[in-house]
Amino acid sequence: MQIIFRNAEAGERIVMASEGDTLMHVALANDIIGIPGDCGGQCACGTCHVYVDPAWVERVGRVEPGSTEETMIFGAPVDARPNSRLACQVNLIAIHDGLIVEIPEGQ
Ligand code: FES
């Protein structure tokens, strides 16, 4: 499947991913700028914050209220939005083929 990462500074990258990958691992494997994933996917650093394209929010799902993911998103130094997710918490499945995410500026 294809995943599209958009970054205000680096532009757009289209990369290949497999079902079962996390969005964060796909970003790291493809040297996507702006997703350092400092904690290795443990939902503990907030450095894999992305904004899911509005057209994809329902398919990806929103952050669960009261979850660790929500705490990390609101504690991150970038703006939290209703379409914010942590890339390490997004497990890719077939319906995510073509997914578009934006990387917050300054991350
Ligand atoms: Fe650290 Fe996602 S990689 S919270």
Automatic annotation (TrEMBL):
Q: Which InterPro entries match?
A: 2Fe-2S_ferredoxin-like_sf, 2Fe-2S_ferredoxin-type, Adrenodoxin-like, Beta-grasp_dom_sf
In its keyword annotation, does this UniProt entry include Secreted?
Answer: no
Gene Ontology BP, a term = P450-containing electron transport chain
Superkingdom, taxonomy of origin: Bacteria
Q: Which CDD domains match?
A: fer2
Q: What sequence ranges are listed for the domain 2Fe-2S ferredoxin-type?
A: 1-107
Keywords on this record? 2Fe-2S, Iron, Iron-sulfur, Metal-binding
Among SUPFAM superfamilies, the record links this protein to: 2Fe-2S ferredoxin-like
Q: Does the keyword Metal-binding apply?
A: yes
An example Gene Ontology molecular-function term: electron transfer activity
What cofactor requirement does the entry state? [2Fe-2S] cluster
Pfam families in the cross-refs? Fer2
What family does the Swiss-Prot or TrEMBL record give for this protein?
Belongs to the adrenodoxin/putidaredoxin family.
Matches recorded under PANTHER family: FERREDOXIN-2, MITOCHONDRIAL (PTHR23426:SF65), FERREDOXIN/ADRENODOXIN (PTHR23426)
Q: What is this protein called?
A: 2Fe-2S ferredoxin-type domain-containing protein
